[in-house]
Amino acid sequence: MNPVLDDEEDTSRADVSGEIRLPATLEGAGPLPASAEIVIVGGGVVGLAIAYYLAKRGLTNVVVVERGYLAEGASGRNGGGVRQQWSTELNIRLMQESVELCRRFAVDLGVNVWFRQGGYLFLARSADEVARLEKNIALQNRCGVATRMLEPRQALAIVPELDLTGIVGASYNPTDGILFPWPFLWGYARQAAAHGARIFTQTPVGGLEPQKAGGYVVHTPRGAVRARRVINATGAWSPKLGAMLGIEIPTFPIRHEICSSEPLKPFLRPMVSELASGLYCSQSMRGEIVGGVTIPGHASTYGMGSTLEFLATYARRLVRLMPILGDIKILRQWAGPYDQSPDGNPVLGAVPGHPDFFLACGFVGHGFMMAPIVGKLYGEWLTGGPPHEIFSRYTLARFAGGGGGGPHSDKEDFNIG
Amino acid sequence: MAGKIVLCRCEDVTLADLEHSVSRGYRDIEEVKRYTGFGTGPCQGKECLAAVATQLAILTRQPPSAIPPFTSRPPLAPTPLRVLARDPGAHRFADDPEESEQKT
């Protein structure tokens, strides 16, 4: 069944001759406008969230250019997890706000994203891992997130299918959750377009030409657009866009694989993850078991191929953890790129020496869950609001000198899965 | 068009669903797959891809040759986790049990 509950279901269809009666979310094959206040490069969830919040706050002269189809990059390839179990106060507080925006998404954006708060259950297999969870939980509790440490038998009460062999503890926060990523993009895209933003797919940027008076001319195969400001929201491809201006962004792509099973009757409430292997799995609202595992030591690549090594490793770890899943069939596997940053935190804000070029990248595989709040804060800032502290702490400048951080750079060590 | 024309039987995607996707601007076969869910069930497009591509060509007034198939995903057929878990190519983590202990 189509998951999208469109409010215009019966009036917006094309007739069979191909005539389109209502404006589409995405622009067709037409040319770009001559100019825009802001050009957002990257039609993933981060770029579309920013476009939506800008347009909603009245800055409607916004153009989004996406080099491929909508959801072609990591935004269409992730597991849909949304959690508040992080290791730094800033990330915990950001994700508290993102969860609230996810809760309201269906009402605010008019698309059902199947957001389900079944919690996140992290499993520890060593005393070191337990200590790490306990340290994070103390900080999360101070921020008002009700994560708690569980004995293995308590974890069994939440997921009776677990094999507890080797499990020594777990952390559980009941308000973490999962969502269905694609409708999230359609919701932001549609509402951004409804407010006046224009979204062009199949439009790669070939060059950025700085203008003497400020701003850029953005060159694409379907024409050039003059922009007062440009936002780099290209995820793992952000170093390439930065390089067009001689800006070195120290992030790099890491391929992560993921797979999906046949649909099952709902039985698994939380996202389940184990620290030792980065194994994670959850049951989507479609009933599929969606999950992955982190195989260490893989080289940086833009490749999105699939491997039997991944599937075998995932299956081995998952069947060990939940033996009852052994007979469940995998339907498909795919891959997507993490935009890996040196300290595990995103790279945001303006670039030193390039006041009209802004970054929204380096999310290390967690950009989807961060996009709602980052989009909102960007929208507020670039429409005249005061800058949130993320724009002064998660800057490119913190990497100056080649280090992983300055005085304000906390390392995020809980990029699990 | 009278009646309900089913294009993808696994996911119950109809011609009307395809028309709706196209009307929204989601016309790339990859976007149509994601917007309607066609081709994401047990057959993974083996039964429905040609039917959807044909109708998409008509709706978007393109020759069928302009519509490539969507990226096919492994495995070739639905495969049980238990079978995959026995593959010798699996990465072994430090805490992985020896073969004799593995319960699968």
Q: Would you mind describing this structure in some detail?
A:
The complex is a heterodimer of chains A (417) and B (104). Chain A is α/β, with parallel strands linked by helices and 417 residues long. Chain A has 9 helices and 18 strands. Chain A has helices at residues 45-56, 89-109, 127-142, 152-158, 181-194, 238-243, 308-321, 367-381, 390-393, and strands at residues 35-41, 62-65, 81-82, 120-124, 148-150, 169-173, 177-178, 198-200, 207-210, 216-220, 223-232, 252-261, 271-274, 279-283, 289-292, 329-340, 347-351, 354-361. In chain A, strand 14 (279-283) and strand 15 (289-292) form a beta hairpin. In chain A, helix 1 (45-56) runs parallel beside helix 5 and helix 1 (45-56) packs parallel to helix 8 (367-381). Chain A starts with 34 loop residues before the first strand and ends in a 24-residue tail after the last helix. Residues 1-22 of chain A have low confidence and may be disordered. Chain B is mainly alpha-helical and 104 residues long. In chain B, 32% of the residues lie in helices and 7% in strands. In chain B, strands 1-2 form a two-stranded antiparallel ribbon. In chain B, helix 1 (15-23) packs across helix 2. Chain B is elongated. At the A-B interface, helix 5, helix 7 and strand 16 of A face helix 1, helix 2, strand 3 and helix 4 of B. Strand 16 of chain A pairs antiparallel with strand 3 of chain B.
Task: Provide a short characterization of the protein structure.
With 417 residues, chain A is α/β, with parallel strands linked by helices. Chain A has helices at residues 45-56, 89-109, 127-142, 152-158, 181-194, 238-243, 308-321, 367-381, 390-393; strands spanning 35-41, 62-65, 81-82, 120-124, 148-150, 169-173, 177-178, 198-200, 207-210, 216-220, 223-232, 252-261, 271-274, 279-283, 289-292, 329-340, 347-351, 354-361.
